[in-house]
## 1
Amino acid sequence: MINRISIGSVCIAVALVLSGVPARANMRSQALYARALVPFDNGEWEKAYGLFNQAVEADPSDVLALYYRGLTQARRGMLAPAIQDMEQALKLSPGLPHAALDLGVAYFDAGQYTTARAWLQRAHEQPADRFIAAYFLGLTLYRLGDYAAAQAAFKEAEPDPELRALAHYYEGLALLKLGKPGVARGELAEAAREQPQTEIGGIAQEYTRGEARQPPAAVAAARKKPWSAYAGLAFQYDSNVALAPSDSGLKTEQGISRQSDGRTAIEAGGDYVLLDSNLGSVRAEYDFYQSVHFHLTDFDLQGHRVLLDAGAQPAPFGYGLALTYDFYALDYRSFFQEGLVTPWVAYAESRGAVTQAYYTFRNRDFFREPYDPGRNGNDNAFGLRQYLSLGAVDRVLSFGYQFDSESTTANDFDYTANQGDIEVAFPVMNLATVQLGYLFRLEDYRHPNSRAYFAFRRHDNEHQVALAVSHNLTEHVALTLAYIGVFNNSNITAFEYDRHIVSGGVRVAF
Amino acid sequence: MGYRINRSILCSLAIACITAASVQAQETGRVAAILGTVQIARGGTSQMASIGAPVFAGDRLTTGSTDQAKVVFEDDSVIDVGPGTEVLLAKQVFDRTSHRLGSLLHLSNGKLRAWVGEAYREARSRYEVETPTAITTVRGTEFIVAYDSAAEVTKVICITGEIEVAGTLGVIGGRVQLPAQSGTEVAKGRFPSPPERVGEAPMRQYLAGLELVGTGHRDGLSVAHPALSGRPLTAQDVPGPPAKAAAPEGLTVRGLQESLADRLSPDVRANTQPLLDFKLTPPDHVPTGNVNVQF
């Protein structure tokens, strides 16, 4: 081991000299950097971080101080700033030894597998890191669902005696995923032979003896609990609570003196997994919502939602059924209720892409005039949705198309609609989770509209923009910020309106 | 009386011993990085150094032919000790209150690089590296001193700042001022050669064996990573029939189909135009007045 370290370190030194790493830190940063190495070696990450941080402040171009601050940040679990530091160090010194490997490992730990793969492939080209990079590359490819490439990578890591058992084990798993149990058994037997005393050695041993083993206790315990609950409180500004038309003449005519207001929004709810089996899962959810306006209290909205969601996630085929019941009260009086039934099927083209097709039937029933009974009716919607993983569990892009047709008791609100939308979710430097969505919808009403004195039909187009940012303060408490913009254009001015909602709040979830 | 005298002598001796011990025990720096093995000789004994080990004035550091070390001192100076080097920390005086710093290193073989801080710009401070043939005096700079004991030649390279090099002839004169990126050579019994500019390639040669990254061990994130612990990383990392078919990475298909705006706000989801018509109509009444609702 000592030889290995020495050879490795000599390689680093030689590589540094040859690559011309700018070790030209200023005197102060050099002293602080050297001082920080002592707690770093001792695992005192906070102390080491403080000194490396001072070194970087003393000289922001000190490559090694930056790089080691990054390594220390990663040890402290701060992966986003760690990645930032290491990338900056690599930018300043492209030949910095081991940096590609460390970046690859950091991205792997952050669950950003596509980026991890790129860095690990680069590290794999470095002779000093070839085997360890191959092993982490194998793990990354395995997570990405590219089992054939993962198997090849694990095979490459096997000559390293310290990695041999692990590489055999994961190669066995990749082969099982590839539907090659015979060869997989051989690899697992190798892993068991190499390291019988380790947990993976034990698992491999049991498997080769014909006993399929359940996940280890610690891992099984980490599985998601069957329930979750949340509560949230937000303060919102709504530019158009009353959905007043944009036209100021119409506003005057309707006596609208105030349309914007602030409100408190309270939400609470939870879900429970009723059934979780090989065939799929069934989940029940309840959500409560109440808005309390500061001035326009007539528009206080209360919502209750009960949802039963059954389905099997695609692997590669999936299917499901969502049953939803919504009840809304406006100004604490019944407003409307609706039921939705959404059966769906999905197909996973790869581990990073899923296509979903769905149909939604909705029946909406208003409780009071003037909407009751005229606007009571049914809506039938057909849609296609594509989900794409952006290389990590928390980076998902989805876009879809939907056609729907609404039939109401009265003629004014019968329409067909086409809509397209795109949505992306991603983390920002481990600080926040961001969701961004845009929707465009065209509504063509079937009959000449009463607001146009039955002279022509109504045509609307609507743009929806939504941005939600969530920053976790603790494991259970998050700050939430959101903006929603709705822009409804119509050939009948009474239906034209803009709406902007800005929301800031706190959400507690368990 | 005799007893009292003896007792006071003993006390004085004890105090002197304690004082001497405390002076002796005044730590002047610490080993920050080691590649291979480094020996520290102190008070007639020698021990293998480890990272974080204190160093004292009078310590002699020795590296093997492939070993390196980095030492950081209380005065914020740092030395990188190259392979096959023997250096004595002859004098280390760090009195910041009187702005008096003094450091004298005796290099009897091998090479070292020193980083000397601004503190040595003070008139009363002096940082010197001495070899059997040369004395290098520094005031705030980075430089290399290499001494080949077989050839009895010292090479001094100034990387940044400026340094002064003199021979050890004991006669006045023959001092040279080395500007950055220049070097000189001092053979036994000679004055330093005139300064010569050091090009990129020779500079790399001088730096070889002095560039120690980190602690000298593998410090990267793959070290002690859970993926190397011999335990499965996740529940999916066990062979056999999976408990449940896993969904693609991060892709959970939604059942209920709603836009992000609808999901974020029931106020957007539930409100339908023309909402005012609804609000301006009292319960159980048909719309009247200026509210124009016709179906």
## 2
Amino acid sequence: MQRIDGYAPIRDYALIGDGRTCALVARDGAIDWLPLPDVDSEGVFWRIVDAERGGAFELQPEEPFETTRCYQSGSNVLETTFRTASGTVRVTDALVLTDTSTLAPMRELVRKVEGLSGAVRMRWRLAPRFEFGRRETKTGRREGRYFACAGANGVLLSTWDTGDVDVEDGTASGSFDAPAGSEALFDLPLTHREPIVTPGRRGAEERLDRTGRFWLEWSSRTQYDGPWRDAVVRSVLALKLLCFAPSGAIVAAPTASLPEWIGGGRNWDYRYSWVRDASWTLDALIRLGYEDEAEAYFWWFMHASRRTQPRVQILYGVDGSTRTSEQDLNELDGYRGSRPVRVGNGAADQVQLDVYGSILEAVSLYAKRVGRVDGTTGKAIAKIADYVAKHWRDTDSGIWEVRSRETHFIQSKALCWVALDRACELAESGVIPDRSDRWRTEAEAIREFVDEKGWDTERGSYVRAPDLRELDASLLTLNLLGYDEPGGERFNGVIEAVKRELAVGPLVYRYRGEDGVAGKEGAFLTCSFWLAEALARAKRVDEASELMGELVALANDVGLLAEEMDPETREFLGNFPQGLTHLALVNAAVAIEDARREP
Amino acid sequence: MTIWGALAGGLVGTVVLTSGLRFAQELGWTRMDIPLLLGTAFTDSRSRANVVGYALHFVNGLLFALIYYAVFAAVGHAGWLFGLGLGFVHALFAGGALVTVLLPAVHPRMGTPWSDAEETPLLEPPGFLLRNYGDQTALATVIAHLAYGAIVGGFAAHLAGWT
């Protein structure tokens, strides 16, 4: 792995997490990203946005090495194997789950080093830098152990068989031999607003083993048997890491400001729960049999949106807050000079009418597959449908939350139709109060608008908006959500237009037009999976399978995908790993398998 | 007689407190729903939870009125102003410990800051001073508890003849 100006390629990261926060581990053994205490908190390791000042936890052989990596079977516990001229060493990394039967740290990073052959000299360096460096990190030794703290946050390093710990300039470091058969351990308890719990070696190792067992048991419940099972299981494990356990929220990605183009300014904080993305994640979780997570999210959504219902904000904080103000961290360099580094997200105040279609689709699936929707919730859902019936004629910023002027995005209108269609279904089955006469009338009016104003006969496809006569890959979602008859003229028309105008090999751009933000971006991987799913729904199973095979092969060595990809260099771009990409992968795989099995 | 006065104050105070918080909800100031939070400790049906929660909240209102009464009796003084002060302390306790620490610790369907991937709680934890339920939740809680305290203090003073 070659770092450029201190930055690892995004493709060379793997994700570990515990349902509360997540860390990125590079192929060279460095942990370059870890917010504390929660996934949306400020970073303690944040070298992905500033290679020089950002904190990190490095661990690698002293001599030149080659690396292979994998997750433990069906798990989010990562194994990195270093091969050197002197021997082989395996490092196992995990943010371990809290064992509630005993006093355990509130967050805990465990790194286990096992000598497999020969004898490898390892070196390590721990440099925590709290709150993106905006607050001074105090460091020192306590009872012989290295500690670092800032405000209410702190870490305390315990080591076993890793040699002496040197502390200099706020950084702990050391080196040690790892001969065949040896086992060394780093345990880093992290705390927030409570005393640090310092576990013993046995407790830390037990939690590491227990964490691996939990993930394996959890992932073995995946209800998918098809040719892409490995990719689907990896995707659902990644999605589970994006579920914020304390509240049930689901974040779009665990990182902030990984750029959509190297050196560009399209750097956003995705550590929020987008209602659209999370609703689709809920769909994917239900389809794969993970009903507990789906139920937790559903409750969270109904509670988080309580203050604004029937209007729904497009994104919320993981604690349900509406405080998402965007802030530029101008003192940070940004990933390979991609500035500004942003935390918070200014899109929260946008109007995006398509979210209502995603919500009602998710509620419909939830009611069918998971269980009851009680009367109070049913009334709230019906009010949301009323809101859609009243407001679908408004302009909005569309699914891609463009920062140019609002307009009548066709995808948004069609998703409003989906919302009212699902509301009618829910009313017919008695789940929500029945006001379907009005909803049906408005749904027909939407269809009339979309079919007349949104269809381009010459192009043989819908267009982005009546005043934006260009293609948008999000129009594929009309196919996925049942707006058009599968395999019909319009259904296939959109597929062909996307392939013709937006695809570069297996990759698909979102659109080619302007969006109010300067700079380029890569192809959007979710759109590629949407195309594969649309092909499957059109019964073009061979085409869908071929495309799916190409797309799955684009994942990195541990099966993870980013938001975007440079079609020329195949470099990953954007926040990583991206939930929307992985859930699109899951839905495409399931759709292809369904299409293959249907007569 | 004086205990009945405090209990009557507790009943009226709880009606005002609960209604006040409900208005705050409807005005979009807060997502906090005390009956739902209490009721979901016993059922995952929102409708049933609301019924159970309201009943529990009124029982709690009466119990707190007795605690207020004990303080009045110990000091030998009651009144709406003294009740107002106790209401403020009550609000701090509710927002700083009772709902934020103790309730998540015993609530089977509520997350805590320690919930991890093994758990799928249905309710998010309130956070310190209930701020997870909206920025103005703490303010609404304080105002509602001030009203409750003043009513309990006023009723206890009037019916007991204390001033």
## 3
Amino acid sequence: MSAIEIIPINWYVTLSAILFGMGVLGVLFRRNAIIILMCVELMLNAVNLLLVAFSAQHNDPNAQVFVFFIMAVAAAEVAVGLAILMMIFRNSKTTDIDFLNRLKH
Amino acid sequence: MHMTLTQILFGVLSFIAILGGILMIFSKSPIHSVLYLIITFFAIAGHYILLNAQFLAVVHIIVYAGAIMVLFLFVIMMLNLNKETETHKPAWIQITAVIIGGLMMVTLVGALKGASMLAENNKVDATIGLTKRLGMVLFNDFLVPFELSSILFLAAMVGAVMLAKKNIH
């Protein structure tokens, strides 16, 4: 018994698109770099959900292994990203991305 | 009866996920953002269980709610950022961001709504998400990527320690 037999795949596609769009909105909307990193996580999760839905639809476990690898890469990305943020905070006492525009000038 | 129950569960979990995401974006305090994102992650784990991906649901909770979000909380705590002093972007940038995000959402939904994504409707295999089945696939077909990801983790660990160290001699 799987939900994919009852719920059309289009519903999952719509839900994933909404979650992904919310991640994009958060990246554009906020200035705090930590929140932006969290919005990137939300986008990765939207993709993961879609992969799992297609995996259930096509009876293919390979997609679930892809999700496993995406989770591993996301964990590594967060560790390095937060370390960079701590270094930035130590040097400039802020995590505001609009402060970090020195490449522009 | 069963059919409606699954659909109700789908609706409730989707509502919780979307509500958590919206609250995460618009809440003032970073701590509250982290907690709302954890709610969203639990709702997505519920979706995985509905889709018969039990192993991934457990891994998702352990990795995201247990490791990544705790890392976020620790960083916010160490940087002492739990103040609502974040300056906001100018109003026109915020309005533009909402319009762009909304347009992207509408475009994605509209483009994918009419697409027919019918699989050949073979019998649904319920064992697809179990640890035994996934382990066979992972250690037979994806052994080299699995080993490479361990090297990636080593590099990420060394990099994180090196970046966060105070004085590098």
## 4
Amino acid sequence: MTHRTQDIGFEHSKISRLLSEESGNILLPDFLLNLSSESMRTLSGGFFEPREVTTVEAELEDAVEEEPRLNLANTTIIGEPEPIVNVVGNCPVVAVDVSSVRVGESEQGLLYALRGALVWREGLSYNFTRCGPLAFHLNDLIARSLNRRSRANDNLSYSAWSPLSERLLSRLRNTLERWMQRLACSRLSRGIVLLDGSLTAGTPDNPTVYLEDILNRSRENGNAVIAFSKETKLCFSGKKITRLLDKANYPCMLNIDRIITPQFPSAPVRLMGRVYVAKLTSRGLPFRVDIDRQLSEESAAKAVGRLINSDIVEQGYPETLRLAHILSTFTANEILAIQRHLSIDYGLKLAPRLSFRRSLFGPYGTSREAS
Amino acid sequence: MKKGLIVQVIDIQFANLPGILEDILRDVMTEDTIQGCDYDPFNISSQIAVLKDTKILICKIRGAIENGKAKTETSWLPSRTTSRIVPYSIEKLASTRNGKRPVTLGRTRSDNLTVDVKMLDGKLNIITGKKGVGKSHLSKLLILSLIQNGAPCLVIDINGEYVNIGRARNDEPTPYADKITVLKPGQSLKFGLSEVGLKTFLNTMIYALDLPRTSSKVFSRIWNELERSGNLKLNSLNDAIRRFSCHESVREAIYSRFNTLMDLELFTDDISERFDFGLFEKKMNAGHAFIINMKDEHALSRRLVVELFISKLTEQLSEMRLKAVFLFAEEAHFYLRETYWEDIITRMRHLGVFTTFVTNQPDTVQESVYRQADNIFMFNFTNEHDLDAVSKVAKIDAESLRSIVKDLPPHNCLIVGDIVRDFPIVVNVKPLDVQTMGQTRHFFQD
């Protein structure tokens, strides 16, 4: 037991060292840094229409949809949820989250910013390392660069108003997110790595190869990867699967993997995690939870038991992951700051937006709005 | 600059940017629970810090510059797209230093503010602010500036704060020491009945001591009889009241009030003890300050002395024996009867009594005084009730006044009016090398 405590102490200091001393060099891949700089250089003092931000705007994060909606037939037999057993002993917990936000539009393309946060619990305190914001001008240069790097042979060609901008953003975001997740899984041992979203991969913008690598490294270091989805599109009998735990008033998890897996053929989309619906506290909210499929069901249950003993779980959501989300997301004020950075460092001029409504119907107003 | 709009910053606030509250809440929520570092390769966070601290300047239009000259009225607006914003020296706007009687009141944010004392001549002034912010200090500065320029001042000193303005902090007499006379009622200030006159004496009996109208008529007859016989003395008046043929209740009413007045020891039959109004005239016309020290005086004594002096001043001014008087009235509600307020700002002003009211209770000064005041020196007020009272001044809008006055530090005052050419100016009043007697007495000395 003494030996185990010392071991954990070592792991804590190791991850602290990783995340504080070396963070600058390793948290952000050079490729992304260079891509950000190069793409921004293509702006060269043109006009820029900033995104308007208001105090009433509730959600600034630009969610990237990855998974299709999936309705499970109600003929499927669903088992009973299993209680989560608290596993005595703390282990290190690390959470990773990355956010993206649109900051405006240039004449050639859209401007986005990315930021990632890595939070870990050490003893009773929480620590973080955050990287970014990185600004990107989504244009052909980025599309070509990403194509060159992509292991999935998918040729993207970009045009400013194309829906492909969503895919470019998704790729950029996944690149940073997977990089940071890989880092966490490589440097931590015998701990829990919490991810935002699911452990689904296999789309051109989210290739399986990266997630596979992350999970392999994690297993090699004795970690358990658990992913929490705030939103899920998996439905059962027309209702979200999280409703399956409506009647459960104790910490529990329900394995729904066997009814979901058959819905996904072997390729291209792969569920690399075993899918559960879990309620981590008796009065908490239920979430879709994906746990590394290569771990046995027993190990997965133990990992969740260790998690609720090692982290604060408010409203059924781990605090480490909540903090990672808070630290990575952008506020309206930060968007304004990024816009200011763009106008100062890249000489962008704010372009008034053409308002068709005012142009057509406004008796006195001009056709352009102040931004 | 040939043409421009003059705006004054009346308040500085943090800009209410979108999401700022969310930012602050996030910082507060995480600052105690989480520590860490940011890797921000393009230093965008510095822009976030700049934005968080972005301030907005709330301004009011005060006038315009046309052909290089500042004026308080304006009827045009500059372009909002091509105009430039430049700081403009307050001194250039408000200073009247080119006048013949310059006096430096203190420092503005950028420079000394020098004004012409002449701007107090013929004016009604108010110095107000809460306790301990420097009202009396400014009042002393104005008095010294006036006597330095040969002006006559009469100071009604309710707390004995002005008695040593003729002495420097090192107790040496200042160059103006011989131009300052301190009077203490009952000691260096005593009056003879004939100098006071029936009207003043009777007014005091009526207004200060509530003598009934019928009794006042009887008293007038007694007074007139003694005056006709050339025997208007204290003892004679006392005897006459006791012997006069009238109803017992009338006699009792007059006698009790007469005795009350006598107890104040303000009257004397001894000519050598009497205050010499002739000498008073002479000194005042040569530039002098008479300070009536009312500290520890009975309320009746205060009212009587003020009634008497105002009555005498009116007489001397009417007969052109005095050119004018700058009257400094501290906490005037303690001694000024209601009917005098209107009189001071109308009739007496025309005669040459130019009053400066000094008070920390602005609601005790009548609203008409605020409306007609030519110069207002306002120190800090934080109480809403006080701000309501002072915001009645006509020379500045209530919003500017409230915004500026609430944030004034001690010894800083907002000056509005003719003395600053109607441009509201905040001044840090300059220190004076005179002894201050207005400080609160303390039990604990360490």
